[in-house]
Design goal:
Number of domains: 2
Bound molecules: zinc ion
CATH class of the largest domain: Mainly Alpha
Oligomer: single chain
CATH topology of the largest domain: Arc Repressor Mutant, subunit A
Distance between the termini: 33 Å
Shape: globular
CATH architecture of the largest domain: Orthogonal Bundle
Largest sheet: 3 strands, antiparallel
Helix content: 40-55%
CATH superfamily of the largest domain: Winged helix-like DNA-binding domain superfamily/Winged helix DNA-binding domain
């Protein structure tokens, strides 16, 4: 894990700090550290991996503390939970409310956000047509990222509706 001194992660942390102070909430040192760790990973990171990374640096990072820090970061939109992996990714635009649909690469583990008003509108319409009141609608699409698909075109055939 090597992070350049002025990597994009630094700017993201600076932005997170601005956002939290504008909202009147505190990015405590532990919350900040957890956010840095999530953002420094290319792949979605699991809570126990975060704990392991933290334990080398913080003496008092107990699981509930880390879960509370993650809950805070999710609430502030700084981190998204990848439900299907039970893992977490940093968000690149926490200042704009959005339904973060997630594209999960099953080969390299990279998770990208997909923003599509067309998808949101279609989901809203279909959910409403079913007479259902949605609290949250977020898709997680599993497959190959563009890079992995290019590496192995054999595996890059569309899967249809395999769940
Ligand atoms: Zn996001
Ligand atoms: Zn990939």
């Amino acid at each position: 894990m090597s992070i350049a001194r002025h990597s994009p992660a630094d700017t993201r942390i600076a932005r997170a700090e601005r956002l939290c102070s504008a909202r009147g909430v505190r990015l405590t040192p532990l919350r900040r550290r957890v956010l840095e760790l999530v953002q420094s990973q290319r792949e979605a990171v699991k809570a126990y991996d975060l704990l392991a990374m933290l334990s080398t640096m913080e003496r008092a990072a107990k699981p509930p503390t880390v879960y509370r820090a993650l809950d805070f970061l999710i609430e502030q939109g700084l981190v998204h939970r990848v439900d299907s992996l039970n893992a977490f990714v940093g968000c690149d635009h926490p200042d704009t409310p959005h339904a973060a649909h997630l594209l999960v690469c099953t080969r390299c583990g990279r998770v990208q956000e997909l923003h599509s008003t067309a998808v949101d509108a279609a989901v809203d319409a279909a959910v409403a047509a079913a007479g259902f009141v949605a609290h949250r609608a977020r898709l997680e699409v599993h497959g190959l990222c563009a890079r992995c698909a290019a590496l192995d075109p054999q595996d890059a055939q569309p899967a249809g509706c395999r769940v």
